[in-house]
Design brief:
The complex is a heterodimer of chains A (292) and B (333). With 292 residues, chain A is α/β, with parallel strands linked by helices. Chain A is built from nine helices and five strands. In chain A, strand 2, helix 5 and strand 3 (187-193) form a beta-alpha-beta unit. Chain B has helices spanning 6-11, 24-38, 56-61, 73-85, 96-101, 104-113, 141-145, 159-171, 217-230, 248-257, 273-284, 304-310, 315-326, and strands at 21-22, 42-46, 66-68, 89-95, 119-123, 152-154, 176-180, 185-186, 201-204, 209-213, 235-239, 242-244, 261-268, 289-294. In chain B, helix 2 (24-38) runs parallel beside helix 8 and helix 10 (248-257) crosses helix 11 (273-284).
Chain lengths: 292, 333
């Protein structure tokens, strides 16, 4: 099956996968403004993490993942698991832009009986692979997906995006050990290393550094990159696995609240809700527009 | 290996039991092997629990479909959900005490809420690990799992039902918890028995009192019915292996058709089979009840046989509870 590409639901975006970093940047900023709009309307959300993950999501869904919005359960699709499930708004935004469901449905985010719950539900939302929310669940599930492809002799790949604070959950390291044991080079972990968790900076809470050395010690091929540089991300995704026979870990250095000056690197914006004025300012800074 | 139950495999007091009795794990392992022969989706995940699940033959025959994640239950459940996402049907198998308690959130979220096609196989449940102590008893597992939506909960009574439940688990699309004991039990059902979810089999007819049991207690309930018959009391015996879905009609029929209900389970009195029956009766048809199980304490030291006796989970104990319920007071031997 050919790569179905971006469905063109966002006016002006190409209908084919685009490897143009400038296009991916535009897509990322649409994700950002959409997520902030959803949070603004719902009065709840996780703005900081939505914004830090936007470029990673844009790159994956814009140019990397082999998925098919017209057949979400296509058996040989690549799997993407959002382990940091509290950033569902950003995921919903990119899934709708990718054509998995109508973009105007984003307006129902967290509304009564909406299928767009505050954390993703794979049985309700096309394109969602795992019901995440409690932290430390995504990587074990991703290990199972990668093992499944191996057992079935299939070539699809598994990607999982974790937060950095969530790496304090021990289940991640259980999963990392099994990924190493089974040599799962069809598995890629991307760490959204924005340095902040709900209450404080990660290093003031329970420190994670030296993070790359930890993943290396757990048997991963590891690379650190700028998680807001689509070109750099594209280049890495094009040469997976980094080390044959090993799972890959991409530590994506990001800024929580990226792209919106008043939210950047502010712990309070972990689950800050933008006012109408702040949303307007964000739209100007992001050079994006939400029409739904 | 702090968590290892393997010592109990060597020291098991049940090893000397007569050959008329059977360990349901053998039926579990054998059936899984048979299913894996014809269904390439069948795979197994263990947490180092190769011998305590009796799955070594599976590992030998199907090494590519056997995953040992090591002593890591949270990961084990997530890996199961991921394997199911990819189209496999994983039987996630380990000692029930660790499998349920350690990975409760994964059971709730990764399996049940996700409707993942994962089969959770809690081995050596109840107090089968006896003298290893309350850390290794799994007497809370029914109370924990039966309250989770979309999770099937099954407590087979004998080898035939264990095999049938494993076959059902593969046929059914969705998460299932199988609670499988290592305590040797009598063979109660025919080899060709077919498990029907939500169906309580009536193993014995009677209209004086109803004994509702599951797992290792079913055989003992049948023995109790024989003792009661000696006193002119006809006891109905229902096998409540299907905890979820539950056969409400059979429970209501028992309440209406007898003078009272005794529930018997190798687990806590609170929240388990007895609690479930009480919930149904309290809202639909009040009937006198006795709930037999483990009271609100951690068990003292003793092997499984001793502990069942200690808590009155014997044929005599069940008989006495039935007599008490019927107003005759406990029988003095």
């Amino acid at each position: 099956m050919s790569h179905p590409g971006i469905a063109g639901q966002v006016e002006g975006f190409a209908a084919e996968p685009f490897a143009d970093p400038a296009e991916l940047q535009r897509l990322a900023n649409h994700i950002r403004l959409s997520a902030m709009t959803m949070t603004h309307r719902a009065g709840l959300g996780h703005t900081g993490g939505d914004l830090s993950a936007a470029d990673i999501l844009a790159t994956l869904y814009g140019a990397v993942l082999r998925v098919n919005p017209t057949e979400p359960q296509w058996p040989e699709r690549d799997r993407f698991i959002l382990s940091k499930g509290h950033c569902a708004a950003a995921l919903y935004a990119v899934l709708s832009m990718r054509g998995f469901f109508p973009q105007n449905e984003l307006a129902t985010f967290m509304g009564a009986l909406s299928r767009l719950n505050g954390h993703p539900d794979r049985n309700k939302v096309p394109g969602v692979e795992a019901n995440t929310g409690p932290l430390g669940h995504g990587l074990p599930i991703a290990v199972g997906c990668a093992l499944s492809a191996r057992m079935r002799g299939e070539t699809w790949r598994t990607f999982v995006l974790t937060g950095d604070g969530e790496l304090q959950e021990g289940s991640n390291w259980e999963a990392a050990m099994s990924a190493h044991q089974y040599g799962l080079d069809n598995l890629t972990v991307i760490v959204d290393r924005n340095g902040l968790q709900q209450g404080d900076f990660t290093e003031n809470t329970v420190r994670l550094n030296p993070l790359a050395a930890k993943w290396e010690a757990f048997g991963f091929g590891v690379v650190e990159t700028d998680g807001h540089n689509s070109a750099a991300l594209l280049e890495l995704f094009a040469r997976l696995p980094l080390v044959k026979g090993k799972p890959t870990c991409i530590i994506a250095h990001t800024v929580k609240g990226k792209g919106v000056s008043f939210a950047e690197n502010q712990p309070a914006w972990h689950h800050g809700v933008p006012t109408t004025e702040e949303l307007g300012n964000a739209a100007l800074e992001l050079e994006a527009e939400v029409t739904w | 290996m702090v968590n290892s139950p393997l010592a109990a495999d060597r020291e098991s007091p049940q090893k000397s039991d007569t050959t008329d009795l059977a360990d349901c794990r053998d039926a579990f392992s054998r059936t899984l092997m048979q299913l894996a022969e014809t269904d390439p989706r069948v795979c197994v995940i263990v947490n180092d629990s190769v011998s305590s699940t009796k799955l070594h033959p599976f590992q030998t025959k199907f090494p590519d479909r056997f995953v040992n994640v090591g002593i890591a239950e949270q990961n084990m459940l997530g890996v199961g959900a991921g394997l199911a996402n990819g189209g496999m049907v994983p039987f996630v198998s380990g000692a029930s005490c660790f499998l349920t308690a350690r990975a409760m959130e994964q059971i709730k979220v990764d399996l049940a809420y996700s409707k993942a096609n994962v089969k959770l196989c809690g081995m050596s449940s109840g107090m089968a690990y006896g003298q290893l102590g309350p850390t290794h008893h799994s007497i809370e597992d029914i109370a924990w799992t039966r309250v989770i939506p979309d999770l099937r909960v099954i407590v087979p009574a004998d080898p035939s039902e264990t095999a049938a439940a494993v076959r059902f688990a593969l046929e059914y699309e969705g998460p299932v918890f199988l609670r499988i004991s290592r305590m040797k039990v009598p063979r109660l059902l025919p080899p060709e028995f077919v498990f029907r979810p939500g169906k309580a089999e009536m193993l014995r007819q009677g209209n004086d009192v109803a004994l509702l049991a599951n797992g290792v207690m079913v055989g003992r309930a049948l023995e109790a019915a024989t003792l009661l018959e000696q006193q002119g009391i006809q006891a109905r015996v229902l096998n409540m292996s299907s905890i979820k879905p539950v056969d409400e009609q059979a429970i209501l029929d028992a309440a209406r058709g007898t003078r009272g209900i005794v529930t018997v389970e190798e687990g806590l009195r609170a929240g388990g089979l007895g609690g479930m029956v009480a919930e149904i009766l309290a809202t639909q048809h009040c009937a006198p009840m006795r709930i037999l199980g483990v009271p609100d304490i951690f068990a003292p030291t003793g092997n499984a046989v001793f502990l069942l006796e200690h808590f009155g989970l014997t044929a005599q104990g069940i008989r006495d509870a039935a007599l008490d319920l019927l107003g005759g007071g406990p029988s003095i031997a």
